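Subject: Interface between my chains keeps coming out wrong

I've been trying for a while to get a sensible model of this assembly. When I model each chain on its own everything looks fine, but I need the whole thing in one frame so I can look at the contacts. Pasting all components below, labels as-is. Any help appreciated, I'm running out of ideas.
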Amino acid sequence: MTDQTALFEFLLRLGDNTLVLGHRVSEWCGHAPVLEEDIALANIALDLIGQTQMWLGLAGEVEGAGRSADDLAMLRDVWDFRNLLLVEQPNGDFGQTLMRQCLFDAFHVELLTDLTHAPDDRIAAIAAKALKEVTYHLDRSSETVIGLGDGTEESHRRMQTALDLLWPYVGEMFTADTVDDAMHTAGIGPDLTALRSRFDTRIDAILAEATLTKPDSIYAQSGGKTGFRHSEHLGHMLTQMQWLQRAYPGATW
Amino acid sequence: MTPDLPTIWDWLDQVPDPEIPVISVVDLGIVLDVAWQGDTLEVAVTPTYSGCPATSVIAMDIETALYDRGIRNVRIKTQIAPPWTTDWLSDKGRAKLADYGIAPPSPAGGPDTCPRCGGTHLTRISQFGSTPCKAHWRCDDCLEPFDYFKCI
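Reply #2:
Try treating it as a single job with all components included. I did that and got this:
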């Protein structure tokens, strides 16, 4: 794998994570339990889609095949997506959505923090911009996980169920493959082992305050960021997200 | 005749933010640079939040305003580094926000006083408000809800 190919793949991972999670979160628009949460979710989705434009825009530039951020988002199929399995998981109930958000935000904050030091100015600039927004996302998702975990018997039960369900998707974030290794060697990508320990510190503190029990299994699902095997949910999501460009190719506002 | 840069900054200071029309795009601190490149005026603009839907409207409003002043060639350059911060809001802009009923950003992480009654007993309702750049608060003195311009 050339450095350029690894960089392209790495940027797709960054952009596909924010795109898929952004779309998932936007599915709440008009359905959240209270108006304030509806607005919050829509705003978070908006931040993530904005970050997607920057990451996929840069990916297209690096690829050099003339594909725009829109082309990459709307005209690729499931097997070309490079997002983590975690972010494509369905919303479930509100607690499950916020648990997924919190697990991803805790990883995202650490990842972006490292990327602000990337020798490639374009990557460092996007990371610095996104980090401000994502820090705010983590504030909110962790507060909500704590509030619901340490809430009523029912909210506690739902949050523990969500954590047990989503925990097997955490390991993939920190399992390095050839792309991660190449990017780390190039001084761009993070040391995923060190990242994991910073993630664990954050998540352990949040879960303790939320009175939730971290599953002791280290089993990790894989196949999202490599594109080898996405879960069945991504295809269903893409049929919603991409239908307009599929039905009316090249349509613009 | 080519207008000089202070004149152009003055014109830009009359372009309202589409979401919060009481302040200008210059007050908001999103116009980073204005420079002539030959006969083309290059305006560097930075987004507040990366997904802010007003970004493209702002670019169009700036182009239109300059066109109306007779500048035919305008190039809007989006520049994301250094990332926008609420520290770049002008003092004039902060005062106008407060007059309009939006509490200006404060390093303490929340509003100092209610923009309506000046009360100091304030409760955060939601970390997000009507736009990405605002949060939703309530004054427990006058009981009115209000927007707070988040500090980032």
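Reply #3:
Confirming on my end. The mean pLDDT of chain B is 92.
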